[in-house]
Amino acid sequence: MILDTLDNAAALARLSPAFADAAAFLAGPGLADLEPGRFDIGSCGVSVIVACGGARRADEGRLEAHRRFADIQVLLAGRESIGWRPLAACRQPDAAYDPATDLQFFADPPQAWLPLEPEQFAVFWPSDAHLPQVGEGKMRKLVVKVPVEGG
Length: 151
Description:
Jelly Rolls; three-stranded antiparallel β-sheet
């Protein structure tokens, strides 16, 4: 897991060409003005989900994990806490892995909570189970889906 601010997102470009596409997007203007929805960026299979809406309580969500993509969770407005647990420590699958959505849920509780402020981001690898969008009130965020090798 990585926690940082958007001012330092350019450092992600060193990780892979796909992360370079993500970093270039995050360095661009107008992130707060994007319309809700999902769209592709760059040429390496990176996509972005723009989400606006209410936060949920911790007991309303489940840990999730991905195998083929890393998530860059970017908070633009509001307050968010993201639950985290190492995937290797997850013992209670709540559903089978779905390769079509690259998603598996777990009933295990988070081991730690990561508070995000606006203009901060967190990177969750396939080895990180996470429970996003926990908080109070409205939030605006981006989820950048970055393909990773070996996923």
